[in-house]
Amino acid sequence: MLMKCGRCLQQVPLGDMKYAKDGSTLVCMQCRGLTVQEHADAMRYDASPPLSKTGYACTSCGFTFSRANITPKRCPFCAKETIVLADNISSAKLLED
Ligand SMILES: [Zn+2]
Ligand SMILES: [Zn+2]
Predict the structure, then answer these.
(1) Of 3, 38, 54, 80, whose CA is between 20 and 30 Å from 88?
(2) pLDDT tens string for the chain (97 positions)?
């Protein structure tokens, strides 16, 4: 059974839920133990893309995109293995996915 966390609003298995310090709100284990401010910071971090995103471009179709943690092997647009680093492309031009 999935329950909605009272803070991050994610669906979490009931077994992973705990009552928050106020004793009435069920929150997930990740949220419990965080202060409201820490939680807000964590949410803000999740919502915004990390600054360390690397730009890539496909030499086949010209599609540009960015990935934060993984090095893509195939173009997400044409699926060809023609990905090159595109660090010189301004991040403003990179399509967010
Ligand atoms: Zn939560
Ligand atoms: Zn492509």
Answers:
(1) 80
(2) 898 998 889 998 988 888 887 788 889 888 886 666 676 777 776 655 556 788 899 999 999 998 887 889 999 999 999 999 986 555 555 555 5
Q: Which residues pair with 82 in a beta bridge?
A: none
Rounded alpha-carbon distances, angstroms, from residue 3 to 15, 22, 30: 9, 18, 14
How many C-beta atoms surround the C-beta of residue 57 within 10 A? 22
How many CB atoms sit inside 10 A of residue 50's CB? 9
What's the one-letter identity of residue 66? S
96 CA distance to ligand 1 middle (Å): 25
Ligand lying closest to the C-alpha of residue 28:
1
Question: What ranges do the domains of the chain cover?
Answer: 2-47, 54-93
**SS3 of 57, please?**
strand
Report which of 8, 43, 48 is spatially closest to residue 28, judged by C-alpha positions. 8
